[in-house]
Design a protein that fits this description.
105 residues; 28% helix; five-stranded mixed β-sheet; globular; alpha/beta
Length: 105
């Protein structure tokens, strides 16, 4: 399964970003191969609709699960429509690596 973790930066030591549509980057973690790739969120500065555009990106990437802090209602609806699991963590003290470590266990 491909899991996306919202991230403030573009490496494993980056802080987990609570914002889905406005996160700086998305960490794409393949749970099967254990590979990690970071993609910049090009819509983080959008005037509106950042969450919807982020959800569309998740569909494009064929993501099975997204880990973030907060999802807007339109993003939730779109992710639900495409059966993408949403996991909410309300703690930004974790790094991306911390979250990956929790997934592995």
């Amino acid at each position: 399964m491909i899991t996306v973790i919202t991230s403030a930066g573009k490496d494993l030591d980056s802080k987990f970003d609570l914002r889905f549509g406005r996160a700086g980057h998305y960490c794409i973690y393949n749970e099967q191969t254990k590979s990690v790739n970071f993609v910049e969120n090009k819509n983080k500065e959008a005037q509106g609709g950042a969450g919807t555009m982020a959800a569309e990106k998740m569909v494009e990437l064929k993501v099975g699960k997204v880990i973030s802090g907060h999802f807007g209602p339109k993003a939730k609806d779109l992710l639900d429509k495409f059966n993408i699991q949403m996991v909410m963590i309300d703690d930004d003290s974790n790094s991306v690596q911390d979250i990956i470590d929790k997934i592995k266990n």
